[in-house]
Amino acid sequence: MFIITNARIFNGIKFIKANTVEIHKNIIRKVYYSKNFENGLNINRSILCPGFIDIHTHSSDIDILDIKSREDVIKFKNSFLKKGVTSFLLTMFYKKNNRKLIYIADQIQNSKIGSRCLGIYFEGPFINKVKKGVIPVEYIDINADIKKIKKEYKNLKIMTIAPEIKNSKKILKLLKKNKIIPSFGHSNADYNLALHSLKYGIKNVTHLFNAMSKWSENKPPTYFAFLKNKNIFVEVIADGVHIPPTILKLIYKKFSKNRIILISDKVNHEKIINKNKKVNSRLYLHDMICNMKKICHLAIKDILQMATYNPAKLLKLKKVGMIKKGFIADILILNKNLHIEKIIFNGKIIL
What we know:
Helix 7 (245-255) links the parallel strand 13 (233-237) and strand 14 (260-263). The chain contains 11 helices and 17 strands. The protein folds into 2 domains: 2-48 and 321-349, Roll (Urease, subunit C, domain 1); 52-314, TIM Barrel (Alpha-Beta Barrel), CATH 3.20.20.140. It is an alpha/beta fold. The strands form 3 sheets. An 8-stranded parallel sheet has the order 7-8-9-10-11-12-13-14. It has a 5-stranded mixed sheet with strand order 2-6-15-16-17, with no helix packed on it. A 4-stranded mixed sheet has the order 4-3-1-5, with no helix packed on it.
């Protein structure tokens, strides 16, 4: 049994009165208030929060496209863990019969070392070439077979789709049938088309304001459509480059803490970086959290929710994303400036 006490506990949604967490094996056994700080690890009122969940990342210290060995897989997953990301979705571009990528994805998901891989997130292949961003053309295929993709990548969780492509309604229905979350993105759709697409199961928006149609004086901006449905989450890259500070503040004002999911969208592949200097090759999710605090001056609880509870809610995770009895003990100890002091993963202190 392992006890952490004298903590300011952020449970994923709010700071709670309880100040002590009791961990048995890898599970949170109790969360309670105590005046006795002699038993267990006294963290002197530091913040205790759930481990970060990055649902959109292609890279850690090494890019997925650069993985060549088991050692690379371990480095890939451990790099996340050292930055406080205890769970992540492996984000990739889809290409038919890409045996190498299938093998790497399987190795990352099956490895028990390092951060927990929750599944796969595909940007494409059902996207608009006009808004492909850094995605190579060979990874765009609007005629791809959903059933085959699901067979190759059994743990596929999210897929980006542009609703203006041919047969998009049929594709959206197939995604829903196969329990894959459809995410609006890499699209040139206007407000009306975006609004219409929500009727067919869109639950998320891939990096809001990036790889989307530009604003027009004569039409409502596309993002207005996402304000109509309060159950839709929007991903935000808070590096201050992909989205300017003024727009970051606007996003928070419009969507609030309950609908924003902070992501890193980290890409560390040299060829892609050389083609687009805007690509984030350095910053992890923790950096985005700190940027959000610095730029938007938000309450700590609001920012942390965007990187813990919200992504867990989108993915319908039942044991990850909160500090709560029965949940897996993925816990971070942070100081008041959000610096990571300790990392507890699966019930064990790893940093």
